[in-house]
């Protein structure tokens, strides 16, 4: 029995136990133990992260002449460890005070259902990541969709329910595109094994490759929320109960990236994609995909800028960050693809932390609406600190880990001579910086609202996972080599040249990156500043948060001077015209079209003369048989 | 083989009956007339089936001692089949007539359009999608919403 | 094997005897019906598995084919011969108010349905098909008992159904007439022997089109299925379940038999593909905008039957296998869904929070719906996968269109089915929660049974696959059919006769000319 078998057995056991006992108090402790055990098993497999052999499960299934099998390689392991860790953090987050309040608001059963949903998400993702052929990949894919849907549907709010429905329709559409692609692969190669496709793909015609890539990519892009399928994700994730949002936000959408890696890069081969030109244009498939990534960094990020709810802002960001990962991968070179992969890890750390801080804020204040928040820094300083760490990471500034991965992507774009893509990525980052500032300003800075005067720091059970995540962000930011080990193994497994790195960062002939130095210099600068400050006397006066004046008037807490509503009014004056909602209109147009067709079909079924249809169709088919069509 | 003259007449008749029947079923609104058209249609089809076993110079397919065994006979199989088909057809027509009577009693109309509208309304009321009061034409029976 | 004919004769006898028996003792009549069904089941289970390798034909009255009438028993016909009494038994009206007439019609249905699947003769198939039609019209009419709510709807729906069905029957009859003109026989095996020579032409093709559309009325084939929403909306869910589950499949089986044995033309298959895919898309589209559960399920059933036709239209054994998979899956799931729907009448919005009221039923519903949609690892997924994979490997462009239609329809299907799931699990109770009808015990038993079978099949998918593929192989083997019905001696006779007949004919003509 391999370790992978143990993982699956543990998953099944965990699901069983949770189903049976989900109404019982204390189940949350069991869940934490479960994720910890799962993490332990993954660590047992950690050889994969350092160039180890592929681990197979001894379980397999023979059907339709296909052998379905499950295995873990370096790529799956890399994604799996992030998945399980996210699950563990979410479980810890919901195990303490947050869980109690959720129980009170709903019921024991509802809390248990949330736990089940989380567990099913983790399990289904592990099944997906372990898939060893297209069919098992598809099965995992559908299971993940179903589990996410269950998680999203838990919020009784109307908007959340609509988002869940929208999600499942998008997910089904994606799954059907995937299924079609899979069926074509079967039609061409007569098999659904990875190896067969990899072999056959070299012999495929350009048209076939374009069709296959388009179908596969549509399926995967929907999961990832890439342009033009970005509309469903943000609302669906944001409206999920906090631990669910933490988990979904951190890793769920990345399953699409995993599938892109497996199918488009490993099997069809990016090198192959590079050679295929789209007819009537000067683009090849790789450029198209890279531009999809670039646009995804821009459009959702600027939509995030307009959000007035912290959760929605973060979730829209999550969509945008997916663009960097795709963009990095699509550079094809060792540096860029490593950046894309590393970003998956980095992004998971800060996105989880950010959703947790917002979850903590909601736990204490009951809202995530920017119009009703502000000035919480004095009340929740640790939460504030975690958020600052995370937004530094999200914006891609040193010394947090987000900087490293974004730097790698930028650098590889420049080295590749892709200035336009580089500019697009920078525009995306600009939007990120603007909106994370909005996030931190509107929640933690500025004027404290009167009703929040008695708000206290988040409870320990919420703080611990946040602080650990912040620590991870900092440590892997300073020493990215820790994670780059895994990334390099994954790159090897993908068939790419692994990046050259050391503990501190990237080794590059044309100027590498050493985060240890950068961090030291940063702290050195801080230290110098502090020394100067204290040498000058260190005069500082502590004032109360309400001790404010403007225009010669003292301002009391009754006066609202916190500028949060209609934030960036000036900027919106400049760029507001660009928000046309074209994609939304497209979506609505499709719905209207379906509705119209549906009405037409219904009218047909309401024919006045019952025999009308028989005779019409007889005449038509006889006509067509007798060569009428020709 | 060339088709003898009389068969052309028969075939024309059969197909003509089918066409008339079809046209009737399609165009007539009155359900009773629709049924009559159906009868014509069935008659046409039966005739067609009979014709498939017809030989112009054939005799009745009965073996009698007086006849020579090698004589050309009409094919008996289609005749047997048509007998069955006619019986079934008559049965269905009788059922349809009974139905029409009861519908007339219930909906006070023989017009297919009206019958359909009342039926659709009844179904919608049954499934609770519309309230009984919203009928365009008030219902004679007067159902109560359950 | 010889007593297999009893599964047709006994119910037929019972159908006519029961009203007479009821005059003396109503209980006796009902018990007789049940007994007959049980005997049928016992007879079939006693020969179960004996035709796995070699099908069996049975000449009625000892007349040798092609003169005599034969029953043809292979895995397919045996499976359905078993399913018929089982399903009838499940949907038997177990109560005292039902008129004996309805029981009698149920027996007629059993007899004609069994005859339909077992018969090896085209005209017999026609006769049994008509009997089946009469029985189903009768059952629909019986729903419209005087004074009952919705009486008029049931009557009008059955009249419209009857007219459509009767025109369909006429089409079928014309198709049979054409076949007879071409081939001069109606024995399926004999026809199969002659088909490559006699039916592989325009006339044969139009005969198939006519039969397809005629029988398609019962099989809910697009566009001769306008009766479906009307009838299912007007009758009880018990009958809708039986019609959508069983009767439609029987009609499909007839079409498949005829198609496999008589019409090798690719055009025949493509005609079926086109009608099938239009059925899929139109059915799912209308179901999407339906406002109550029964109507939704009716249109979903149209869509699923369209899927069945698309599957069967794929050439080769794989197509047959896909068709059997999806047809049997639908036969299992749709009746169960109808059973659940019977307790959930009224507009969909009124079902809000039904899951809280009856969590078990809602969970059953979700399971069935997921299988219908094809969520792995439930059986519906494997059925859909078979269709999709085999459609994609076909070269003809019509199959690519069909693939696109099937996939788009699935998305639409997901949209409305998940919407219902969301309504069921709505946190707030709907307004009519208190007045909602309770599910009856037998409905829950049937639905639970279907769910158990679904899970069992999901666990045993490998052995299920071998069974289906062996059934498909047997059904698709024309030579096997011919060799089963005719002995070597018969075959030699037929070849001889054909030659003789042809020479005879020619000599007759010469004779006429010389006269």
CATH topology of chain B: Helix Hairpins
Query: In total, how many beta strands of chain A?
Result: 7
Structural class based on helices, strands and sheet pairing of chain B: mainly alpha
Oligomer: heterotrimer
Listing every helix as H and every strand as E from the N terminus to the C terminus, the arrangement of chain B reads: HHHH
Shape of chain A: globular
- Cα Rg of chain B: 23 Å
Low-confidence stretches of chain B: 135-146
Name the helicity range of chain A.
Answer: 55-70%
Mean pLDDT of chain B: 77
The largest interface is: A-C, 54 and 65 residues
| Coarse morphology of chain B | elongated
C-alpha-based Rg of chain A, rounded: 26 Å
Number of domains of chain B: 1
Helix/strand/pairing category of chain A: mainly alpha
Question: Which range does the strand content of chain A fall in?
Answer: under 5%
Relative strand content of chain B: under 5%
Just name the CATH architecture of chain B.
Answer: Orthogonal Bundle
Query: End-to-end span of chain A in angstroms?
Result: 63 Å
Can you tell me about this structure?
The complex is a heterotrimer of chains A (630), B (146) and C (515). Chain A is mainly alpha-helical and 630 residues long. Among the domains of chain A are: 257 residues, no CATH class; 45 residues, no CATH class; 44 residues, no CATH class. In chain A, 70% of the residues lie in helices and 4% in strands. Chain A contains 24 helices and seven strands. In chain A, strands 3-4-5 form a three-stranded antiparallel sheet. A two-stranded antiparallel sheet of chain A has the order 1-2. In chain A, helix 1 packs antiparallel against helix 2, helix 3 crosses helix 20 and helix 13 runs antiparallel to helix 14. Chain A starts with a helix and ends with a helix. The model of chain A has no long low-confidence stretch (mean pLDDT 86). Chain B is mainly α and 146 residues long. In chain B, 62% of the residues lie in helices and 0% in strands. Chain B contains four helices and no strands. In chain B, helix 2 packs antiparallel against helix 3. Chain B is elongated. In chain C, helix 15 runs antiparallel to helix 17. By secondary structure, chain C is mainly alpha-helical. Chain C has a two-stranded antiparallel sheet with strand order 1-2. Helices cover 76% and strands 2% of the residues of chain C. Chain C folds into four domains: 120 residues; 140 residues, no CATH class; 182 residues, no CATH class; 28 residues. Chains in contact: A-B, A-C, B-C. The interface between A and C is large, with 54 and 65 residues.
